[in-house]
Amino acid sequence: MSMSWFEKLMPSRIRTEGSTKKTVPEGLWAKCPGCGAILYRTEVERNMDVCPKCDHHNRIGARRRLDLFLDEEPREEIGVELGPVDPLKFKDSKKYKDRIAQAQKKTGEKDALIVIQGRVKGVDLVAAAFEFGFMGGSMGSVVGERFVRAVNRCLEFNIPLVCFSASGGARMQESLFSLMQMAKTSAALQQLSKRGIPFISVMTDPTMGGVSASLAMLGDVNIAEPKALIGFAGPRVIEQTVRETLPEGFQRSEFLLEHGAIDMIMDRREMRDRLSSLLNVLMRKPVIHTPPRTPNETPEIIEPAAEPPADATPPAEPPESA
Amino acid sequence: MDLNFLEFEQPIAELEAKIEELRMLGNDNEINIQEEISKLQQKSSTLTEKIFSGLNPWQISQLSRHPKRPYTQDYIDALFDDFEELHGDRAFADDKAIIGGIGRIGGLAVMVIGHQKGRDTNEKVKRNFGMSRPEGYRKALRLMKTAERFGLPILTFIDTPGAYPGVGAEERGQSEAIAHNLFEMSGLRTPIICTVIGEGGSGGALAIGVGDHVMMLRYSTYSVISPEGCAAILWNSPDKASAAAEAMAITSDRLAELELIDEIVPEPLGGAHRDPKKTIENLRGALLNNLHRLSSQSIDNLLENRHKRLLSYGEYEASD
Predict the structure, then answer these.
(1) What is the pTM of this model?
(2) Which of B179, B202, B316 is nearest residue A142 as measured by Cβ atoms?
(3) How do beta strands A29-31 and A38-40 pair?
(4) What is the number of H-type helices and E-type strands within chain B?
(5) For residue B137, which of B28, B210, B230, B67 has the smallest C-alpha distance?
(6) Cβ contacts of A232 on chain B, cutoff 8 Å
(7) Are A253 and A224 in contact (CB under 8 A)?
C-alpha cells in the first residue's frame, strides 16, 4: 500500500511503518476509517466526529452524542440511580459481574443507555442514547427501565422522545430478562403513541438484533446516520445460513432506505436543526427562531412545553421510582 | 440406535423395543407373555421416571425440539372445532412457518396462531423449520387485528428456533415486523394467552409471545438465544451448549421461579411425545381455565394489568 501524500509529508519519527491499521499513533492525528485520509484530530472532533473529507460518521459515545445534540441548558439526567444486577449469577468464560465492572470502568457509565431531559433549539424533549462501549450497547434490564422512564417523562410533560440507538442487541447475560426488555420498551412506546406524542428513532452504527427489533424500528420517524449497519440478524449469521456472500452495502442505511425501512438518512451535523424542526411540525408548533447555541444566562426551570391535549390525563404524579 | 429417541432416552427405547417384540410373539403362552410385558412396562416406567427426574437443561432443550413432539397443527387438530385456516399477510406472501385461523375450543370462539415445524424433509423445508420471515409475523398481526375486531380471544403457540436470518427477510424488514408485533400486542383489546409448546427461540418467539398469560409446557424452553448460539458467542465454542443452557435459565421451572412466565402445563411421564393425548388434555384444561378467567375481566382492566406486567420486567438496583 502506498503512503498518502500526507504521510509522505510527515517527518519519519511521526510516520509509523508497517500495518496500515496503525499508521498513526493515538494522539494528534487520526486516520479516517472511511477514506483513509490523515486528519487533525481536533478538526474531526470539531466536526462532530464526521470526516471533513468523505463525511464518514465515526462512532461516538452516548454522552458526547447527547452533548452535541442538546442545548447546553437545561439538562436533567433520568434514571441515573439505576444500576445492573446479576439475577442469574451468570458466568461464561467470565462472570457477568466482572464484565459489568469492566464495562463501567471503561466507559464511566453504569449501563448502556443514557437519558437526559433537555432542549434542542428551544424544543423541550427527552433524548436517550446507547453507549456502544458498554458491552456493545446491549439491552439489559437497566437499559429497558431507563427507556421506560424516558417515555414516562415524555408522558408527564407532553414532550417528544428522541433515541439514538447503537447496539448489538439483547444482553445475553440477562437471558430472558433481556428478551423481555423488547416487549417492555415496545409497550411503553405504545402508550406514547396513544397520547400522540412523537418518537423519533435515530439509528446509528450499529443497530442490530433485539434493539432493532423493538424500540429502534418503532419511531414515528425512523432516521439513520449514513452507512450505519442496521438489521436483525448479523451479517455473519446470515452468511452462514444462506452460504453465499452478501451483496455490497447489505444492511447499511442506504440499503434500508431503498427497501423502505427508514424515512431518511441524516447527516449528524444537521440533526439539531432538522430534528427540532421536524418535532415542531409533528407537535404542530409555530416556527420558532432561536438564537445560536449559547448557554442561557439564567438557568431555566423545566416546565411542560405545552398544554396537554384535552383528553389526556393530567400529569399528577412524577414517574414511579424503584 | 432409534432416531426417534434422544440419546438419554435410548435405555427406554431398548425396553420399549423388547415389549413390542413380546407383543409380536403372539398368543402361544399368552398368560406368561402378558405377565412379562407388564413387568417390562413397569420397569420402563420406573426407568423413565428415573431418567426424567434428573434431566439437565441441555437435555430439556433437546426434548423441546424432539422430532416426535406435538406441533401447533397437532394441537389445532385435537383442540379446536370448526377450525378454518386463514392465509397470507395481504402484502407479500403466505409464510408457512406460522399458521393461524379461527375455531372453537370448549364452545368458545377464538383465534389461534402458532409457529409450525415440519415432520419430514419436504414439510420441514416448506415450513422453513418453523423460522418465520417478516410476512409470517405480519400475517400473525393481521389475524390478531381480525380477532380484536370480532372480540375473539387469541391463543398463540410458540415453537421456533428463531426468526429466519436470511437476505430476503432482512430486505423486507424482519426487525420492523417483530417490533411492530410487540408494539401492537401490548395494546390489543382482546385477551391473549401465549403457550410455549416447544422451542421458544428469541425475538421470533416473542413476536407472537406478548399477552395476558404466558404458559410453558413442562419440557419446552424459552431463551434470548439458542444454547448453541450463546456458546458460540460467549464461550467461543458451540460445544459448550450444555453450559450455556444451564447458565441462561431456559427451562420452565427456572423461568417460573424468576416470574418470567405465569404457568407450567404438565407433560406426561417421558414428555409430550410419549403421550400426546394426555398432553393435549392438559393443555386444553389450562387454556379453558385461563380463557374463562380472562374473558370475565373488563378489557380496560385486562389492558391495565397487561401493561403493568410488561413494564415490570427486569431486575436492577436503585441507589443514590
Answers:
(1) 0.89
(2) B316
(3) antiparallel
(4) 14, 9
(5) B210
(6) 163, 165, 169-170, 174-175, 178, 203
(7) yes
A6 touches chain B (CB under 8 A): no
Per-residue model confidence as pLDDT tens digits over B141-170? 999 999 999 999 999 999 999 999 999 999
Question: Which residues pair with residue B81 across a beta bridge?
Answer: B104
User: Following CA atoms B176, B180, B181, B187 in sequence, which dihedral angle do they give, to the nearest 10 degrees?
Assistant: 170
Instruction: Report ipTM for this prediction.
Output: 0.95
Taking Cα atoms as reference points, which of B99, B108, B30 lies closest to residue B71?
B99
Q: Tell me the per-residue pLDDT of B65-93, one tens digit each, with 9 for 90 and over.
A: 999 999 999 999 999 999 999 999 999 99
Q: What is the least distance, in Å, from the CA of A73 to any CA of chain B?
A: 23
* Alpha carbons B187 and B180: distance in angstroms, whole number: 11
